[in-house]
Amino acid sequence: MSNFIGIGLTGLQAFQRSLTTTSHNIANVNTEGYSRQRVELTNLEGRFTGGGYLGSGVRTETVQRLFDDFLNREVRGSTSAAAQLTVFHEFAAQVDNRLADPATGLAPGLQEFFNAVQALADDPSSIPARQLLVSNADILVDRFHALDNSLQTLDIRINQEVGLQVGNINALARSIADLNVGIQRARAQGTGQEPNDLLDQRDQAITDLAEIVGVSVIPQDDGAYNVFIGNGQALVLGDRTVNLSAEPGRFDARRVEVTANGIRVTAALVGGRIGGLLDFRNEILDPAVNSLGRVAMGLAADFNAQHKLGLDLDGNLGSDFFVEPSAETLAANTNTGIGTVTAAITDTNALSTSDYELRFDGGTAYTLTRLSDRQTFAVDTTVPASLAVDGFTMTIGAGAAVGDTFQIRPTRQGAAEIDRSLVDLRRIAAAGALRANEALNANGLPTNTGSGAITQPTNATDTALPLAGNITLTFDPNALGAGVPGFIVAGGPGGTLAYDPATESDGKSFNFPGFGDMSFTISGVPGAGDSFVIGNNTNAISDNRNMLALAGLQVANRLAGNTANYEAAYGQLVSSVGSRTNQADINRAAQEGLLNQAKQAQQTVSGVSLDEEAANLVRFQQAYQASAQVVSVANTLFSSLLNAVG
Questions:
Q1: Theoretical Cys-Cys bridge with 607: which of 385, 518, 568, 603, CB 3.0 to 4.6 Å?
Q2: Higher model confidence: residue 529 or residue 642?
């Protein structure tokens, strides 16, 4: 009879636990990261009697959480990837909007500036036209500065966000380590039974961590987790954590990098929000700043070079119109030597949009790496020395220690540093520096008898300008020998120029190196003794030849190895950022779809169904009541037996 009562009591206990677990599931239906639990029951071993084995009731084996580690890892991985792409798209879209917006973008400013250049070419002596050019130059400069400031603002936001997320990572790491300790203690106290709620809390903390940075987990035999982030950086090792810090950058103190116990681990952090931020900085922000800087540097250098070849209203050669930006060099704060590196722009047409890293390997060997494609340039030289590459020249000073590293940013400061240099409106050099005419008599009348003609000379440099005296070209049918026609040159370089009217009357070009590197073309059939005079351009206030040359810079391919003009180079930047932004949006949407699928699959296993739990409540309630009835019947039988004996 006692066994009869005992069987009923085991049922009461088992189904009471089942009801408690079901109630726990219902209470946590909206708890993030909760996995539904189920009481696992097993029958007690029967006892042998003469008539066979009689059952002894039921036993609660364990309370199991319904959990699939593979699905959980899928959710973590998808969470990390979705967060990375979401952040990348969020920031990329801001750059795209700013660069492409007509109200803030560069393209309208470039167009208005060159419109003003053309307006001055139409009326080179006009003071209002000169004022318009200066005003539009200021507007263009302001556009460069505003765009650069907006991009630098995003860089500051990235620094702040990285610092915030590093703090969140440390907090989650400490929480995971504490949960490891709690799980180990609970398993020891529960003789190996799993503390389901603590396991759920730890899994949720790791999923929250995965939203910040990529995560991988290695379980220990004692139930603790070792957690690694990014490309294998240890974060949690049992009950110990590795503390991360946001520190000033190795090269640029204004740029935050992440360290672990003093070791820089920024490059190892991939996935999650931090991965998205760092990808955006490396793939969108830095190239955009550099590309914008290259346009500014190219415009300033080309405009200045051409402007200095002309004459202003007072007959003086032109000066710089813009302030030309400089290349930036930064020494790593880990350098131990005293070596220095400086860089100077030599050819804006050859500039890339990449940054560079120079490392001293020892002896006289340096390695220069172009960071955009990791191409290396070996430098084996005795310092101090210079190395020219990609449109800039580095000057390397002595004193570097092995491993010392320098970063060279040729175009990074371009948009920030460009400015208008010219102040006096009369100093705008609209006129050509040289002029060619037919020889004139004392009355100012042409003396040539043939049909020969000479174009107005153009000068590529200001070397030997203004000319010390006129250069006269006189045609002689026997200039280079009997029957060999040409021009005898008096003044300047002297000598003779071969020219045969019989075969070259359509035009032949000549160049005088060292005298402004002037170029001109002679055509037609000059008569014997006909002369042309090349001299300094005087009283040239209505001359617009240099301004026309400046206007021509708008469509000249002077960037990226003669493949793009300023507007095209900027357009390529806008197109590239727009394409990457659109691609990021598509990838983000696709990854969010994968994340939702992974969560649905996980919830199919681990999620709480209120309908199912309600049915379980009824089922377990009935089983509990039936077990109570067993106890009641046993009690009645026992009482009847006592009465019968009595």
A1: 603
A2: 529
SS3 assignment, position 575: helix
Rounded Cα–Cα distance for residues 162 and 170 (Å): 12
Q: Is 544 inside any structural domain? A: no
| Nearest CA-CA partner of 408 in 327, 349, 290 | 327
DSSP 550: H
pLDDT tens digit sequence for 604-634: 888 888 888 889 888 988 887 887 887 777 7
User: What length is written for the chain?
Assistant: 646
Cβ contact 564:349 at 8 Å: no
Q: Dig out the tokens for 240 from the structure.
A: 């110990």
CB 295 within 8 A of CB 282: no
Same domain, 169 and 31: no
Calpha distance 355→412 (Å, rounded): 8
Does the residue 350 lie in any domain?
A: yes
Same domain, 102 and 216: yes
Give strand ranges (E) for 499-586: 508-512, 518-523, 531-536
Residues 90 and 157 in one domain: yes
Question: Once rounded to an integer, what is the mean pLDDT over residues 87-114?
Answer: 93
- Longest CA–CA span in the chain (Å) reads 164
Alpha carbon 198 to its chain centroid, in Å, reads 40
Residues 6+ apart with CB under 8 A from 150: 98, 104
Q: For 71-87, what is the HEC assignment?
A: HHHHHHHHHHHHHHHHH
CA distances from 171 to 270, 354, 601 (A): 19, 37, 29
Q: Within a domain: residue 551?
A: no
134 domain-assigned: yes
Question: Which tokens go with 507?
Answer: 């035009």
Residues 141 and 246 occupy one common structural domain: yes
What pLDDT does residue 169 have?
95
CA proximity to 213, closest of 294, 296, 274, 141: 274
For residues 379 and 387, is the Cβ–Cβ distance under 8 A? yes
| Pair of tokens at residue 25 | 């599931």
* Count of other CB atoms within 10 angstroms of residue 481: 9
The 8-class DSSP code of residue 567 comes to H
**Do 253 and 350 fall within a single domain?**
no
Q: What is the mean pLDDT of residues 93-109?
A: 91
**Phi, psi for residue 221 in degrees, rounded to 5:** -65, -25
Q: Domain check: are 199 and 143 in the same one?
A: yes
Number of Cβ within 10 Å of residue 440's Cβ equals 13
CB 367 within 8 A of CB 381: no
* 232 and 85 housed in the same domain: yes
Same domain assignment for residues 366 and 471 = no
Question: Which of 452, 466, 463 shows the shortest CA–CA distance to 521?
Answer: 452
State pLDDT tens for residues 377-426: 877 666 667 788 999 999 888 889 999 999 999 999 999 999 999 999 99
Number of domains present in the structure of the chain: 4
Query: Distance between CA atoms of 241 and 601, rounded to whole angstroms?
Result: 32
- Beta-strand pair 47-49/215-219: unpaired
Bridge partners (DSSP) of residue 408 are 329, 356
Higher confidence at residue 466 or residue 46?
Answer: 466
Res 518: pLDDT: 95
Q: Are 60 and 41 in contact (CB under 8 A)?
A: yes
